[in-house]
Known about the structure:
The complex is a heterodimer. Chain A is mainly alpha-helical. In chain A, 73% of the residues lie in helices and 2% in strands. Chain A has a domain at 18-219. Chain A is built from 11 helices and 2 strands, in the order ααααββααααααα. In chain A, strand 1 and strand 2 form a beta hairpin. Chain A is globular and about 60 Å long. Chain B is mainly α. Chain B is built from 14 helices and 4 strands. Chain B has a two-stranded antiparallel ribbon with strand order 1-4. The relative contact order of chain B is 0.16. The chains are: A mainly alpha, B mainly alpha.
Amino acid sequence: MFAAAAQYLVSGLTVGATYGLTGLGFTMIFNTTGIINFAQGEFVMLGGMMSVFFRTWLGLDLFSAILLAVAVTALVGAAMERLTIRPIQGSSPINLVIATIGVSILIRGAAMLLWGKDTFSLPPFGGTAPIPLFGAAVQPQSLWALAITLALLTALKLFFSASIHGKAMLACACNRKAAHLMGISVARMSLFSFALSAFTGAVGGAILAPITMTSYDVGMMLGLKGFAACILGGLGNPFGAAVGGLLIGIMESFGAGYVSSAYKDAFAFVVLLLLLFVRPSGLFGKSGAERV
Amino acid sequence: MRPWYARNLAKAAFFATALFLAPFFLPNEYYINILILGGINALIALGLNLLLGYAGQISLGHAAFFGLAAYATAVATTRLGLPIPVGMGLGVSLSALVAWLIGMPTLRLRGHYLAMATLGFGIIVHIVMNETVEVTGGPSGFVGIPRLALLGFSFDSDRSYYYLVAAVLALAALFSLNLIDSRVGRALRAIHTSESAAQTAGVDIAGYKLFVFVLSAAFAGVAGVLYAHFLCFVAPSSFGFHFSVQLVVMVVLGGMASVWGAMAGAFFLTALPEALRGFEEVDILIYGAILVACVMYMPMGMAGAAAGVWRRIGRLRRGRVPGQGEGGHVG
């Protein structure tokens, strides 16, 4: 009984780590530019798929392949901002959202053409022997996923609180006009936010690929879960998004284990809906705070 | 009779005539199929446009209302053996009822939170459609829905079905035009502009939001039952998140808050994949690129672009040089 619960908890946390990183990506772009980027899930897909293909095509070892994949995805994010978002930055929010939907269709289509419709997997980062923990058998990959997520969160925290670029991005989040008046290049910060979000998403995709496999169309559901994660944590709060992602992962895992695995994807959304009805601004969002 | 009523009647009559004549310009019968599906999508877009374009409330779960009605009439007319008109009535009522139930708590949310709630609702409905195999047939779909027959007339040919859809669409367009010009329409636009101002002016915000949400779900429901009795087959994949997004794109691409724009967007997006079929595998790339390009070069949608062209023609006819930066966003 307890062993099963521990098992569900670990697997929920592992998948939740990726949801959290996806949600974090949403939050960074939203804070800096006010856009909900529906292509966020495709960044996660690219992180996983490119890791697989740099490894097999270029014959790189696992870690170089992942590093290259993450870097290329960050470039894709930057290119997306330059080519599609920047030219229409004054448009209405709904137009910007539709532009990101268009980009997500483009990326998914390109991935399908390049790599086909098969599912692929990435080998685990180190070790396959399960580690016993509170009666649960923990895959080493789960520990890797959690450790990398934690490291990335710490690095981002440091970036936002200690570096000049991070502070400039936070300033844009507080008030874009005031940031602009203080000499911060809001356009460059927008570019950074897309690159950084793509980077974060790609890391999430790469750590998840050994556990759940990957294919050209995994981005949509991952993106939706990521969006759910940042709404759950309160939109605009990056660490709320990370916690929201972990919670969604855990809810799914327990729901699948104790109730029905067929409705796995529905549990998180049911809980989210109920939460929104009670607390319309998420778990950690300030009530009544409306970002403009 | 109010003056706008006559004007709207004339517009709808003109539209009905255009719909009536459309099949005569088609090269072959296959295109009638696309016109029917376009008309069904246009019906949903009309309803969503009232909600999104006029009242300013987003729904990312409208495919669910479309699907609920389609499945309701499918189950009612086959497993329960009810007559088709009863099944269709049940389908539309179910969509409206679910919208009413879900709308009450949901419509208090704003902006991205409303988007998330409607999205979550849509996904839950989609999953239920997939998993309740004994009722819906699961992912492989529901077969054997009877083709529509009303008052002893069987709509067996695609052409007769097209005229039915066209008639429903023209009536729905007339209804929308009148609604927008009425007191309700003014209230909806007031809510869109500023909720606090509308409330101060005595507009029952919660009531009107719920009304337009249920109304748009009912439009989707009518489209759903027409869809089910046309194809005689429904599957959950037609009612997923992807279709909900596509519906929003139809409304925005057409030009928000324009009855004609929403319908043009619907016909355009329905026909586009067919037009791209010749490009084999890269069709999805072209589709995405067209979507991005449309948003970039037609920020006010098709309706806005058409208005720009119209202004430009007017200026040319008056013999003046077009001014700078006006009406220039024509793709």
